[in-house]
Amino acid sequence: EAFIVAMIDHVPELALRAFYLITVVGNRETLITLGVVVTAALLVLRRRGLALGWALAMLGNGALNPTLKHVFERARPIHPTHWLTEDGFSFPSGHSSGAVIAMGMLAYLAVRLLPRRWHVPAWIAAAGLAFSIGASRVFLRVHFPSDVLAGFASGTAWLTISIASIELARWAKRRRRAPQVSGVELTR
Predict the structure, then answer these.
(1) Which domain holds residue 43?
(2) Is 143 designated active site?
(3) Arithmetic mean of pLDDT, 85-89
(4) Is residue 63 part of a domain?
């Protein structure tokens, strides 16, 4: 609360409007649209496993974050931006966790589908955008910094579980397909 109160007089209105544009990327509607579009694109590319992994990652966070909010029931900051208000509980930040999941999964898909030269830029862009979305929530005064950090933490945990699950499924599929001779697996 002290950080938000101290910040009120030092962030110009124009900067707040810019943060609002950034925060829109983490809105529920934006993430739902992104989820549907990416799932459809992966299905068109005949990448059913990735489509399923992507959809489960997005849907899983969509269930996890509201559940955590209802467990903690933390009120939002008392100094909201006059032209932006948010309803519901504050902890953890859904924008922050959603941004980590969506951007992290997009970076993971880039690693799986794009040439190697795009891998590092994809992860840097994903981390930068997720961080910016989280920071925007504090600057817009709709979350405490600890809400955003908790959103990053829960999003990172779910992202790790999601990617590990996809990779484990890939490994199991490769193992099932590997030819065996006399009970010994041959590697290609």
Answers:
(1) 18-170
(2) yes
(3) 77
(4) yes
